[in-house]
Each structure stands twice: as structure tokens, then as C-alpha cells.
Amino acid sequence: METHLQSPESVNQNIELRDGDSIDVLRANTYRLLATLLAAPATRELLDSLQKIGSPGGGEADGGSGMAQAWQTLKIASERATVEAVDDEYHDLFIGIGRGELVPYGSWYLTGFMMDRPLALLRRDLAELGIERQTDVHEPEDHVSALCETMSLIIENSEEIPLEIQHNFFRDHLDTWMGKFFVDLQKAKSARYYIAIGQLGEQFIKVERKYFGMTV
């Protein structure tokens, strides 16, 4: 399997999460949306799409009131945001001069260094799953966007990848640090629109943890 790992072009695929969608569809779509929002500044088209989105699947399917509130917050933030402001905010948060306010990589969060052992372990597990990074993507695979995109791909290939393997990948490569990243994103000095993305991500990681606790 080949994944874009940070491809904003996949953004508008399945943004609409409708009542009646299966849990796996909802999960994969939410991971893909988070991947898109964290890969690059939101386009006007994406902001317009998010203004129309409802709370996916109703109360139970979206994990309860925390998740429902996060979707509503993202919707309102998208109504108020401008493309220019989101672009500036993204660069302040993740790029900056030398580096942004946040460093959105698993190795950095887990060890304080880039390209460290967590990335080597991730690359080993990706190879075992048959997932390859596209040659035109230069970011390390432990970027938060890349990991969300990868998790979406794993869920979409659930006939080939058992739920236990999904859980192991989530436990080893996302749950170890991503919840803290999303909390930090909400607290970042440069964050305005991205506070809503941080809230959605934080709540979704909690929902995923609970989901695997009930199913594996």
C-alpha cells in the first residue's frame, strides 16, 4: 500500500460524515480530516465544507458530548476564519523562522530529538504493514499529519489489517504522544483557529482509546 502521508489533495474526500455511516468510516474520515488540517493551511474550499458539517453519527457514534462539542467548535471556527489568517497561523505554529512554536513529530515529543528511535520503530512497523511513503514527500513519517493519514489508511484496509494490528499501531505510535500534542496546540500562543483542531484531536484520541478498550 502507498500513502500520501501528507497530501492535502485528499482533503475533500468524505468530509461529510453522515448518520448511518459505519464506525470505521467515521473513524477513517476523522483521521483523514485531521491529517489534512495539519498538513497545510486550510483552503477556502475546505473551510466552506467545514461550515456545513454536523456532528457525525449522532451522540453515541461520535463518542459523546465532548466529541460533539468539538465538532461544533470547529464548525463555528471555520465560519469565522479567513484563509489568510489561517495561513499565517499555520506558519507561526509549525514553520516559523527556524522552527514553529510547536514541533509536530512523534520523536520530538517522546525523546526531545528529531529522527530518533521512535521514528525507526515506526518505519519498521510501516514496512511490516506494506505502507510506503511517496517519493515526493520529504517530511519524516512521524509527523502528526502523516500518522493520522496512515491510521486512516489502516482502517480503510481493515479486511487485510486485523483490529488488533490497528490497536497496536495506535498504542505504539499515536497514543504515546498525540494527545499531549493536541493539548499543547490548544494552549499555543499563536493558536486561534487551531484551538478548535486541537480540541477535536484531543477528544478523538480519547474516543479511539475507549473504542479499542471495548473492542480489542
Strand content: under 5%
Radius of gyration from CA coordinates:
16 Å
- Got a strand count? 2
Compressed to H and E, one letter per element, the order equals EHHHHHHHEHHHH
The first-level CATH class name = Mainly Alpha
Low-confidence stretches: 2-20
Describe the fold and architecture.
- The chain is mostly helical and 216 residues long.
- It has a single domain, classed as TorD-like, CATH 1.10.3480.10.
- The chain contains eleven helices and two strands.
- The longest helix is centred in the C-terminal third of the chain and has 23 residues, at 193-215.
- 41% of the residues are buried.
Helix-strand layout with pairing:
Blueprint: E1 2-3, H1 23-39, H2 44-52, H3 58-61, H4 65-80, H5 83-94, H6 106-111, H7 117-129, E2 132-133, H8 144-156, H9 163-173, H10 178-187, H11 193-215
Parallel strand pairs: 1-2
Helix pairs in contact: 1-8, 1-11, 2-4, 4-11, 8-9, 10-11
